[in-house]
DNA sequence: AAGCTCAGCAACCGCGGACTA
DNA sequence: TTAGTCCGCGGTTGCTGAGCT
């Protein structure tokens, strides 16, 4: 169609003499060999020209398109148009639940590697995925929800620890490569000294408390929005498909511990905002040689409620709840969480356990909870303080003896003891039923954000009570409690908008305490 | 009905890696 | 080895339509 470079201003497209000019890039210019290149939306005629060209010459050599066809489009634009709209086998329409699930997993695994993610989603383009994700981010930010299902964050911890054994994490590879090496993000040096703590509780009766603390309180937690903490597997991602994994399944074990673990710190972190499990830039920093996991993570982490959104909005995976000074020091903001949570405990601590107060935001909470819980049930501490292995925990006998809800917060079955892979494996449909099916299969109660919680005096919390410990996210199959929060959850549902179901009916499902989490690797992901 | 807001999407832009001469 | 070119990727922008006031 012999496109004149001067006859393309119809259809609302940019005029050929648009001020948008060549930026010097061979692709991006508005002129090419004297031909003024067009910008803006493509017309059907242009599409036809491009399709015809590709049929004849195949993909690639995009700069030649203009030369061969006269199409007043730069090669870059042609490639984009072809890749995103014209190439065959493109899948149009909304993402399916399965696709959404995959995207979430892949993003947790890869970060913003849209093209690579697209490779896992036949018929989908990187642009589509990127747009989807960005939309999702916005939506979840507005809702004050985590970018990832809480499980993704929490359960990554063991994976992180596993990575520590890999030299690659220090070898200067790109963070994403490192992360991909085992299927998950994880700036995990912080866990270096914690490897042995995974099942050797820093606090008697609190297996994994330290790592859990890191998971939450360190920049590596990249957490979650607190309101979703503790709802792992229960709290429905408002804009995500319900899955076996997320629904947790009534009898699905791994969720429970996370639920309580999260719950322990949930409310204390509710104002912290979004955090993300993976941040390339920060990961690199964290991987730097001068990074001190002991100090940087545990002391300099800040939990700025005033910053999290800006961070999240700006960066790919904002994730970090700390701010970086010009000197590369992570400075706590004035509203550091330390101001909210006073170190509740005194007395000697395990040498390998960061002391409350100094590190320890999460630890503080744990300690406090521990102290309170301990007073109620000493056996809990004894039972869980045993140096149990992953498999041993499966026995659950000890855990079962621990009736205090506190135990759940620090249960070795907690997310910190759950692998990312297990999470993903649970995400991965194994039953064949749709994600939506799961919504109906489980009576669930959504986690909701209760702003008042964070304002509560810590002393008001009765840690001996599960509902106190868990706050709004305490699992409730049915009953008055679930109704209590109905209005809030409904409002959340309304906020989320994209769900057909009320938040009240989504997100939460009770989980067995003592079931053992399956452990598998993220490599399960296609 | 008009105006406003916002989510979703398409496209642009700049950067950087790969390749080649 | 270096410079030039091609191409892909990721971030960002701007348009459009739907929903709300």
Automatic annotation (TrEMBL):
Top-level taxon: Eukaryota
Keyword Ribosomal protein listed: no
InterPro entries listed in its UniProt record: Homeodomain-like_sf, Myb_dom, SANT/Myb
Single annotated GO MF: DNA binding
Transmembrane portions of the chain: none
Compartments where located: Nucleus
Stretches for region Disordered: 1-33
Residue span(s) of domain HTH myb-type: 34-86, 87-141
Domain Myb-like: 37-86, 87-137
GO biological process terms, semicolon-separated: pollen sperm cell differentiation; positive regulation of DNA-templated transcription; regulation of growth
GO cellular component, one term: nucleus
CDD domains found in the cross-reference section: SANT
Keywords annotated in UniProt: Activator, DNA-binding, Nucleus, Repeat, Transcription, Transcription regulation
Described function: Transcription factor.
PANTHER family: TRANSCRIPTION FACTOR MYB33-RELATED, TRANSCRIPTION FACTOR MYB65
Name listed for the protein in its UniProt record: Transcription factor MYB33-like isoform X1
